[in-house]
Specification:
The complex is a heterodimer of chains A (265) and B (334).
Chain A lengths: L2 H6 L2 E13 L5 E13 L3 E5 L6 H9 L6 E6 L2 E2 L7 E4 L11 H12 L5 H14 L15 H14 L4 E5 L7 H18 L2 E6 L2 H7 L2 E5 L7 E6 L8 H6 L3 H14 L1
Parallel strand pairs in A: 3-8, 3-9, 6-7, 7-8
Antiparallel strand pairs in A: 1-2, 1-4, 4-5, 9-10
Helix pairs in contact in A: 3-4, 3-5, 4-5, 5-6
Chain B lengths: L1 H10 L6 H7 L4 H31 L2 E2 L2 E2 L3 H39 L16 H32 L1 H14 L4 H15 L9 H27 L3 H9 L4 H39 L4 H11 L4 H30 L3
Antiparallel strand pairs in B: 1-2
Helix pairs in contact in B: 2-3, 4-12, 5-6, 5-8, 5-10, 5-11, 7-8, 7-10, 8-10, 10-11, 10-12, 11-12
Chain lengths: 265, 334
Amino acid sequence: MSANTALASPILLSCQKLSKSYPLPKGQSYEVLHELQLDIMKGEFMSIIGHSGCGKSTLLSMIAGLNPISGGQILLGGKAIKGPGPDRGVIFQSPSLLPWMSALDNVLLGVNQVFPHETKDTRRDIASYYLQKVGLGDALDKRAKDLSQGMQQRVGIARAFAIKPQILLLDEPFGMLDSLTRAELQEVLLEVWNREKITAIMITHDVDEAIFLSDRVVMMTSGPRAQIGDVLNIHLERPRERKAVMEHPDYYEYRSHLIDFLEHV
Amino acid sequence: MKARTIQLLQFTGMFWAIPFVRLFSGEEILVQLRQIWTSIGLPVMAIAGFLLTWHLVAQRVNTSLGRLPGPMEVTQQAQVLWQEHLTERAKANDFYARQDARIAKIKAANPNAKPRRVAFTGKPTYLDQILTSLKTVFVGFIFASILALPIGIICGANKNIMTALNPIIQVLKPVSPLAWLPIVTMVVSAVYTTNNGLVPKSFIISAVTVAMCSLWATLINTAVGVASVNKDYLNVAQVLQLSARQRTFKVILPATLPMIFTGLRITLGVGWMVLIAAEMMAQNPGLGKFIWDEFQNGSSTSIARIMVAVLTIGMIGYALDRLMAALQQKVSFA
């Protein structure tokens, strides 16, 4: 699916005049986000890029429902978000697995919750299917604490996809990994995503990651009172391959556009 | 085989034995010998030094019951206690054998007769007393856990309840078992009025006193553990919208288990320490009563026998602690 057809799809998630402020001890408040407007189309992979502390993680945690909204609203499929829920699959920066459970049980925890009426075997099949897709078919019964960081994040990806959410929220999912593992996992993510085409929002500050994965990159201004500074559509064919993407004639234009923005906000 | 043995030794905390396993399997002999020297040689030297000092100092102290016993006398009394145990058991066996014979004879004469069986009523031996103490501390430990775990979980989950209960907990925590005992005695006597109950009153009094003094460590550790569960785990529970029950049993409790076990380990340690005092005063026939009786008895061997008890208490306490440490390691996921 190219970016153009994605843009033609209906809006899945919409942030309307979304604001977030934290009270300061002296009575004033610190406004992180100010009346932010953002629409995400169904089936689209969107990245949000910006400097550290610009409020992009705050934005994502508000969409996830883990952080209360100070002003405006977030609509998912036309309905305002009130608190967290399994219709939004979150991949956290730290893998956030329950370390005492096996990889399979970690994924099952979500699957059991979302498909309570399926048989035990079906649920197990769903969980192990996604673990296989992220390359952990041999590690189903390994305890999460015995897995490497990269493998833990693979489980995190499987867990998020396995609950068949309407939208995936990725909060710098590869931020804690070394660059080799990071590249590997980007490909794992892309492969599963190509199959499932679940609408996704990813927070990142890695320009190459944003271009490689997204249909659209949203650039946020630095806080306080952060807003959308610029939007870049990435018209690269899917399925994508890293080498082809890097050698694409438009690649450096995309890249310099993003870097330009980040250097001048 | 070797790997399994080493694993087992690590699990039980017997790290000192690992070099022996390696030595016998032919791993670098010099390295292993040096390991053995540092892990066993040094403690053995220290123990030898301790025994020697004890021996020399004890000779110079004259009590009203004679010279303070040294390591020799204590070892001797330990053997005496073991002999007494064997003799007492032999007596009991004789008694039951005679009783069986008599009953068989009565039945042979009159098949309809229902001869009464009586239990042997010898005095409890030292081993019986150790067993009684272990049972008491175990029951007290269970009482303490039953009280402390739920309250700890509730306190950890709800800040307001924690704030409300904190002063009470802090005030009751440092109270000595000797202060609790009279109160516990009166209350138990008032509530537990049957004279032929399943367990003697003194047993319950001791166990409850143990619980009263030892439950705090578990309560506080559980509360702190529950209150400080990793935010990431709670986020996962929130995103998946786990029910309160699932959140408690699938996320919060497993995450808190290591802290809970730290608390339980301290509780058992404190309980074992408190038990001796409680048994002395409540006259529960365990190690505490043994020490008290020997003290009242005041024979020339009494102090040596008390010292046997002191060492026994220490060794059992150490063993209980190792056991809890092993369990703690088993549940820790870090």
